């Protein structure tokens, strides 16, 4: 007995031999639904070459995903940065000294080059590659994109194995808000019926966290300096991605949402309708010596826990949450405190969402950073 799939295939082949094409009976609206489910920009480009009908329908898709396969490194600028710590809760003069000399001594050594993307579509067979094109060139034939997701092949900020660093930023014409979650060591949950592996001591004494305050050693053993480097590195990564989008947003006025992430899920830059409109209406302020948007002066709220143990058994040592807002920012996400709190709470998924919730209950430390 023949399978239903084989009978259908034979019927379809017979219809084609008789000059009939049942696919022509499929309405354009259904074909567009299929193309929107496909989403991948390069696959859609190949579909456009199949027939005149497909060629006319592919530019009308609402959703597109572009995976960038090539990154050309460019040196990050040696910006003149000024960072200072403040807030009544800190009450430590030593921290100010750490901030004042931090970037002069470590920034050029720690910050690795940040890539700007010149990714291209791959086509052909037998391993032959077409010339590389910019993301804007790959997307130029799409006229109706509403939701665009772009994915870089690698993370922007290099970290050692076992270090946790995740960020999410919202930009309009410049930074509107950014949340960063970090940890000096991430121990994933042990398998069932397996005793958890021994862990090294956390970078600070857990006994000192009873009132949620940061221990004195945090300022003297490099803990604060490391968090500042994480923050600056993440902001440079976000600003570089934002700069990449300038031509794409200009050429696609139908866009309502853009997410620019990376294959490792380290960071995400997102822009929704209001931010995209601001991006097109206001001039972009580029950094003087780098392919990135200038980062404005910012206020930062830092929360810290020497150790977090999550409900699934995951442990984060030196857990840190940094929430960043430009000085004097009155628009965009986070205009109200509840809006900002909701954004921070929803920034990450899975166990990291729980980690943010736990850190949000801890004492807040206020920091300030000059634009760069």
UniProtKB/TrEMBL annotation:
All copies of the F-box domain together span 24-58
Q: Which SUPFAM superfamilies match?
A: F-box domain (SSF81383)
List every stretch annotated Disordered: 189-214
- One Pfam family, short name: F-box-like
Q: What is this protein called?
A: F-box domain-containing protein
Where does this protein come from, organism-wise? Lolium multiflorum
């Amino acid at each position: 007995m023949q399978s239903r799939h084989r009978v259908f295939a034979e019927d379809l082949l017979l219809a084609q031999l008789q000059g009939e094409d049942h696919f022509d009976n499929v309405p354009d609206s259904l074909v567009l639904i299929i193309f929107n489910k496909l989403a991948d920009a390069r696959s859609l480009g190949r579909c456009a070459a199949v027939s005149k009908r497909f060629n006319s329908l592919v530019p009308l898709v609402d959703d597109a995903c572009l995976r960038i396969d090539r990154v050309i490194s460019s040196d990050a600028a040696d910006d003149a940065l000024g960072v200072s710590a403040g807030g009544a809760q800190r009450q430590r003069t030593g921290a100010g000294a750490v901030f004042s000399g931090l970037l002069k001594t470590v920034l050029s050594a720690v910050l690795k080059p940040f890539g700007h993307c010149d990714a291209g579509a791959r086509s052909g067979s037998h391993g032959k590659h077409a010339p590389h094109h910019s993301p804007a060139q790959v997307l130029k034939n799409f006229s109706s994109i509403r939701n665009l997701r772009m994915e870089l092949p690698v993370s922007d900020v290099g970290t050692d194995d076992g270090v946790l660093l995740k960020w999410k930023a919202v930009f309009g014409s410049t930074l509107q808000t950014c949340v960063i979650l970090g940890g000096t060591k991430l121990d994933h949950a042990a398998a069932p019926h397996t005793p958890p592996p021994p862990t090294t001591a956390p970078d600070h004494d857990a006994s000192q966290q009873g009132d949620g305050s940061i221990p004195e050693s945090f300022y003297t053993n490099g803990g604060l300096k490391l968090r500042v480097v994480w923050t600056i590195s993440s902001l440079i990564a976000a600003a570089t991605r934002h700069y990449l989008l300038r031509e794409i947003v200009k050429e696609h006025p139908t866009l309502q949402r853009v997410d620019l992430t990376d294959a490792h899920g380290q960071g995400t830059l997102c822009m929704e309708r209001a931010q995209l409109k601001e991006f097109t209406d206001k001039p972009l302020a580029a950094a003087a010596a780098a392919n990135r948007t200038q980062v404005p002066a910012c206020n930062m709220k830092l929360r810290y826990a020497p150790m977090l143990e999550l409900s699934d058994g995951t442990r984060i040592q030196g857990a840190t949450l940094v929430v960043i807002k430009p000085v004097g920012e009155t628009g965009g996400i986070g205009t109200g405190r509840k809006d900002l709190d909701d954004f921070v709470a929803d920034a990450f998924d899975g166990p990291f969402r729980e980690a943010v919730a736990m850190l949000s209950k801890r004492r807040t430390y206020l920091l300030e950073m000059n634009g760069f």
